Amino acid sequence: MPGIYISYPFCAQKCTFCNFASGVHGAETEQRYTESLLQEIHAAVLPFTPDTLYFGGGTPSALSSESLSAIFKVLPYKFHEATLEAAPGTLTADRVRHWKALGVNRISLGVQSFVSEELRRTGRRHTAETVANDVALLREHGIENFNIDLIAGLPGQTAASWAQSLDCIARLSPPHVSVYMFEIDEDSNLGAEVLLNGKRYGAPQLPSEDLTAALYETAVTTLAALNIPRYEISNFARPGSESLHNLKYWQLAPYIGFGADAHSFNGTRRWQNPESIDAYLSRSPAPDTQPADPTEHFWVGLRLMQGITPSPEEWRTHTQPIGRLVQQGLLERTASTLKLTPRGVMLSNEVFQEFLPA
Question: 208 with 216: CB under 8 angstroms?
Fold first, then answer.
């Protein structure tokens, strides 16, 4: 079934590790953006009835009740899953009640770490206690479906501090956890600082690639013991609590995106809204579309631990790379399926590269 993604790229502060098209802007810009977003949604003619909704950011949990109500009003659908990304510390009883009344039934908390020193280096303001209070608030108001984001490889992170964050996960017992390995990216303040050999944002304290990989592997083992197994490279869930919306991306189901930098896919073609807020506010009405790449099945679908079922033509077309990767212990093949091995997960970029168009 199809889904809807809504981008709300506004934050109270820009985190050092963030490479998204989001940032701090004035109230007037936020108002103009919301009005433009409502116009875009209202004008859209959807060729399908969506069953999932995902509000990404930025910090959509900071949306006013009035703005959020207006957005839901132009989305006359009953969503099986409606997710809202939230920054710890932005939740209040009134907000959570309002979210639930509108139909939001899943919250994704951008925690990243439970360790104060690590959070301070990234520019985050919450504490482990803040997150615990937020989780209690969600449960108190009947929202049991929530995700906690963690990042492995933050500046100053050690095996001991990572264990501290994982211990907090065990105590809070979320149904879903996302674990991302930090990657150096010039579009983030921290990544740019590392590339410049600078000292800001804790750049000199960035863990080695080997330590980051070890932290990730520790999370895989720990979460599995908590009955939160990995179902996608960066995502872990109790059985039945997988993100229905995000599964659409990996299973190549159609979705439409609204807002700055939002992507869309109709099953055969892809398109993207202008990346920056200013460009979005002055956008032309119809972005260019591009045909979907026929190899996406491999480098998107293989992210799922269940793997993919290639067509007979795909088996023939990719015989050589499949055979080579199986021999190298990066892919596991059965009569009809293909999936990453544990080693293949850690070297997934190298695996996917084999299937990208020349």
Answer: no
Q: Which of 329, 348, 147, 108 is nearest to 233 (CA)?
A: 348
**Domain assignment present for 43:** yes
- Name every residue whose Cβ is closer than 8 Å to that of residue 289 and which is 6 or more positions away in sequence: 269, 270, 271
Identify the domain boundary among 193, 221, 249: 249
Whether 196 and 322 share a structural domain: no
On whether the CB atoms of residues 69 and 23 are closer than 8 A, the answer is: no
Can you tell me the distance from the alpha carbon of 341 to that of 352, in angstroms, rounded to the nearest whole number? 13
Global model pTM greater than 0.85: yes
CA angle, 345 then 349 then 352, to 5°: 95
Q: Which of 86, 84, 103, 171 lies closest to 142, judged by CA?
A: 103
CATH number, domain at 150? Answer: 3.20.20.70
* Residues 296-336: tens digit of each pLDDT: 999 999 999 999 999 999 999 999 999 999 999 999 999 89
Per-residue pLDDT reduced to its tens digit, 80-116: 999 999 999 999 999 999 999 999 999 999 999 999 9
Into how many domains does the chain fold? 2
Identify the pLDDT of residue 14.
Answer: 47
- Same domain, yes or no, for 184 and 245? yes
Structural domain for 320, as ranges: 294-358
